[in-house]
Amino acid sequence: MPAALPDAWPAAASYRYLDHAGPAGLAWEWLRRDPAYHSVAGTSAVALGNVTFLESASADCIARWGCLATPDASLGWMEAPVLWSAAVDASVLQVVAVPVMDRQTEPFDLVRSEVRATVVRGGNRQHVLLGSGAGGIRLDVAGGSLLEGPVSLMHDLSRVVDLEPTLAPLRRFLDFQRTGHLMEVPHASQRMRRQVLALRVHDALVAGASIRDVGVMLFGLERVRDEWAGEALKSQCRRLIAMARDMAAGGYRKLLG
Q1: Looking at per-residue confidence, does 124 or 161 come out higher?
Q2: What pTM was computed for the model?
């Protein structure tokens, strides 16, 4: 019988929690594996109903990693919703909050919303995450406040260089305003599944796996035993290893672009 895989090599089932992580959640999974990040991780949080307020990260942290707060690195994406800076996250919607002027305008009330929200105050802006994972919506409030009752939101597209990344979150936000619920997002795309595979490879390498170990983890012992003399499996492993190293070195920001 084939030998069992060493416990050190992570099983595919242990990564299923990433099926709905989306680019923002997956980028966090890479960041929280960065040993340098661990030295600054740990953000104080205060909850008010469904809204959680996080302490802002330092300017150095924001510039280095792109995150507006520094959650505990032991938390997965579902427990530590991360707000990425608009400088790295092209999907952030820029809005201005103004008083509700007439009954024709759909009001937005963050505090009374039933959707989980996270807020980071930074400078003269409120940075907001509605929900989490692939279905989450990031807002930067350039004027006014979402914390003082119902408001009308004006979407500021004047400084958006590329509208394409904002179209899907804008549609989800308009649907949220109409229904009060965030839209469900399908399972991870092929691109995201490959990213999860690279994350799994990274974790195996950190645990001491060799390239052959990676091959056994991905393709099974019998196939590696039969085909390892050729180059096909080795090439696939090399590509995933290169991808894992690039992402761990900061390439995870590409997920947000």
Answers
A1: 124
A2: 0.87
